[in-house]
Amino acid sequence: MTKHRLTPKTMKIIDVILRVLTLPFFLIMTFIFSIKLWVVWNVNFLKFGGESIAYTKKNQRATIQAIYNHLTKEDEQTQINIHKR
What we know:
It contains two helices and no strands. By secondary structure, the chain is mainly α. The protein is elongated and about 95 Å long.
């Protein structure tokens, strides 16, 4: 009784067949994710304007305008302290 062994050439053919069979699922998932990301970017563009890409993650909600305001307040307080001396 002989055992059937898969040769490297047969393994490569099987790998290619499996990749071809899974390609449509991968493409569909990639397409769905791309559409979702595109929708999120457009919604954020409508909400935040030119800063839209920076706010796609929930942990990055501080706007550039808020950071700018915080820095200008510190600068104003520094200027006031300098003028008081």
